[in-house]
């Protein structure tokens, strides 16, 4: 196991000429670091990532191509079993509140939550995902501009006003747009984002939850080296990027507690991986 010092890490990073190479390099180092959890507390990984932010257009292009091609294997034709199983953890007192669903795609989970008389706010950067949500669910909606999100931001509202879906880049979202929330259902966002966007994404989620608010979260955890025989790791997979419990703790603590809830096995590109579910609670 190689131990990476802060200086050594920065020098090595500078040697990576392109963003793709840097990204690949970081993923390899991430696995090496997190495979020995005791080393993570002193890791500068998250801060290093935040220095090379892409523009909104670059960030979204990959996903808009996937929606155009119908390459949306992440979408489930059922309500997520872990949301059903752990829903009560989001609202332990039984009193519900508003739920934010970041990077929502067209998940059926939003309809299920709204059926519990909960106001749901979703956000995705790809228009097709939001339009398909309403058409798949046979729901009428109206559309208005959302300049508080971005110049070309939009808000699609179900006619019963229970579901608000924002069209825009998550990195531009803030409590100024829709206030704060009692709960967040974060399925596969942290594993979908560019690594350099993770730190900012987490700071936005932290700001969106009220004190005592809870976030139910699903991420994937796998050893990137098992994917090496697939070829160029900068184009397939990741994403989904692996996200380890130690990295989650580094990102969310001490403002949040991070509680492991569950895990299950899955195949990704024919390889064994794990899905892990956590409950994050704001102090
Ligand atoms: C892995 S999918 C998860 C979808 C959804 N959570 C689900 O369970 O089906 C990632 C989604 O995030 C969207 N996305 C990626 N980057 C984004 C960003 N920066 N802002 C908003 N949406 C983004 C993509 O269009 C895609 O629909």
From TrEMBL:
SUPFAM superfamilies xref list: S-adenosyl-L-methionine-dependent methyltransferases
Heme keyword on record: no
One Pfam assignment: TPMT
Superkingdom per UniProt: Eukaryota
TM ranges: none
UniProt xrefs under InterPro entries: SAM-dependent_MTases_sf (IPR029063), TPMT (IPR008854)
Keywords assigned: Methyltransferase, S-adenosyl-L-methionine, Transferase
Key word Nucleus present: no
Protein name: Probable thiopurine S-methyltransferase isoform X1
Organism: Aplysia californica (California sea hare)
Gene: LOC101852544
């Amino acid at each position: 196991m190689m131990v990476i010092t802060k200086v050594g890490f920065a020098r090595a990073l500078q040697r990576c000429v392109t963003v793709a190479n840097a990204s690949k390099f970081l993923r390899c180092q991430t696995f090496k670091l997190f495979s020995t959890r005791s080393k993570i507390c002193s890791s500068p990984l998250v801060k290093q990532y935040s220095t090379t932010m892409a523009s909104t257009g670059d960030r979204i292009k990959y996903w808009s191509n996937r929606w155009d091609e119908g390459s949306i294997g992440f979408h489930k034709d059922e309500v997520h079993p872990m949301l059903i199983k752990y829903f009560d953890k989001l609202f332990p007192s039984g009193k519900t509140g508003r739920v934010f669903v970041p990077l929502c795609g067209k998940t059926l989970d939003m309809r299920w939550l709204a059926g519990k008389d909960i106001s749901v706010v979703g956000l995705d950067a790809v228009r097709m995902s939001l339009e398909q949500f309403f058409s798949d669910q046979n729901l009428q909606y109206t559309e208005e501009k959302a300049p508080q999100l971005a110049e070309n931001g939009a808000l699609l509202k179900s006619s019963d006003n229970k579901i608000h879906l924002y069209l825009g880049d998550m990195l531009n979202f803030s409590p100024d747009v829709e206030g704060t929330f009692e709960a967040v259902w974060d399925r596969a966002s942290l594993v979908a984002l560019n690594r350099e966007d993770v730190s900012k994404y987490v700071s936005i989620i932290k700001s969106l939850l009220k004190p005592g608010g809870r976030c139910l979260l699903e991420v994937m955890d796998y050893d990137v080296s098992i994917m090496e025989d697939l070829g160029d790791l900068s184009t397939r997979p990741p994403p989904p990027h692996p996200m380890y419990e130690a990295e989650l703790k580094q990102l969310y603590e001490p403002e949040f507690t991070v509680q492991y809830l569950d895990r299950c096995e899955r195949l990704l590109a024919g390889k064994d991986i794990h899905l892990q579910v956590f409950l994050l609670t704001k102090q």
